[in-house]
Amino acid sequence: MKKNIFLKLSILFSVCLCISLFCCREDETDIDSDNRNERVHNDTDNQGNEQGNEQGSKEDKTPSQETHLFTEEEMAYANTAAHEDYMSDDEKRMILLCNLTRLDGKRFAQEYLTPYLKQKGIDNQYTQSLYSDLEKTKNMPMFTPLKELYDAATYHAEEMIANKQFSHNSPNGESFSTRIKRFVKNTQYVSENISARTSTKDAALDFLVQFLVDENSSELGHRKAIIGQGGRIADRIGISIKTNSTWEYKYVCVQDFVILQ
To answer: Which of 28, 112, 126, 160 has its Cα between 20 and 30 A from that of 71?
Structure first.
């Protein structure tokens, strides 16, 4: 009798433990390309040569009121998408944050990255290498939004949602580079970051930190697309952040980059 009671209690404890672990996993928001809550991928095409490595709240945020390490003049300089009326607040803010990263990576880390990582409890080899890269990132060219590139990013975000398919390639087989070049002519370099999330409290910052940390990516393709790679520094950008209620990934982000000829 005692053995049966002990056995039942053991089974009950095991079930409760499994439920607890499952709930914690679903509530996780750290950056993990294998986490069901997030998916991320980067691809690059330099003059037609493709290579890829594996690797989404609407709030009106006023950037000049949320920072103190960058001056108002610097904020205005980095806010290149401020007057682009075709973009959402999250999309504009993401370009601003990308540009602050390029303007002064060390100050960006102090202002945005460190508080974010501390809140999430993230500290690993990828965050450490990111800090090292940001220390060397300063006074880079600012990203300028390009409407045609935004259209390319939006097209792909919407088709991923419509087809519930997370991929750089379109459902008809069209590659990301062919798609971007269909929207933007005379490119010598194109690159694309994509990510999908089940939840987010700050889409612009959540997606950007995910791309910059680039966890579990040996080539750090997402990070390099933003802060430069192999001497190639894209200066035109298109960002689309879309929400939906039909797919498990409620938030989708596409970043497209080009260097024009």
So the answer is: 126
**Residue 43: closest CA among 154, 177, 207, 215:** 177
Task: Give me the DSSP letters along 99-154.
Answer: HHHHHBHHHHIIIIIHHHHHHHT--SHHHHHHHHHHHT-BSPPPPEE-HHHHHHHH
Q: Are 53 and 42 in contact (CB under 8 A)?
A: yes
Which residue, 196, 198, 197, 179, is CA-closest to 238? 179
Q: What is the pTM of this model?
A: 0.78
Q: What is the pLDDT of residues 5-31, one digit of tens each?
A: 444 434 343 433 332 222 221 222 223
CB atoms within 10 A of CB 259: 16
Place of tokens 């890269």: 133
Dig out the tokens for 222 from the structure: 């997402």
d(CA 212, CA 40): 11
DSSP SS3 for 228? coil
Lookup: tokens for 216: 């579990």
CA–CA gap between residue 139 and residue 117 (Å, rounded): 24
Give me the chain's average pLDDT, please: 82
> How does pLDDT run across 43-88, given as a tens digit for each residue?
766 443 333 333 333 344 444 445 589 999 999 999 999 999 999 9
